[in-house]
Amino acid sequence: MSGGSAKRHDAGLAALVTQRLALVADMSALTAEAQRLNQKLSGIEMEVLRLQLEIERHGGSAELVQDLHDAEESAEAMRQACIESEDRIVAIEGKVADVDRALAEAASDIRRDKP
């Protein structure tokens, strides 16, 4: 590999590594967000259970029934947010896999070019 070609190759590798690091940082942030959403969903689901128990024990006043309805709607919205978050994580994982393949190919090129 000539000097200019080696420098271009090194720059390409550096760009791939930089891209991978950025993607991993994004994935880490999305994973933290997914964890937060799941914790929030768990709290809402506990509230739904509490309201259901309250209604079973003491009857369903209009206020309790409305609170239950609101909590169930919140839980559904949070479930959707969790699904969307997981979809974003899967998309980033695919991008990381693409970069990993490109890095593997570049490393293979280096091994072939060494005497």
Distance, first to last CA: 10 Å
Sum up the overall morphology in one term: rod-shaped
- The beta-strand count equals 0
- Total helical segments: 2
The radius of gyration is 25 Å
Helix content: over 70%
Low-confidence regions? none
Overall residue-averaged pLDDT value: 91
Keywords:
single chain; 115 residues; mainly alpha
Short description:
This protein has 2 helices and no strands. It is an all-alpha fold.
Structure commentary:
The protein has 115 residues and is an all-alpha fold. The chain has one domain (3-113). Helix content is 94%, strand content 0%. It contains two helices and no strands. It has helices at 3-58, 62-113. Helix 1 (3-58) packs antiparallel against helix 2 (62-113). The protein is rod-shaped and about 80 Å long. The model has no long low-confidence stretch (mean pLDDT 91).
Topology:
Blueprint (H helix, E strand, L loop, with lengths): L2 H56 L3 H52 L2
Helix pairs in contact: 1-2
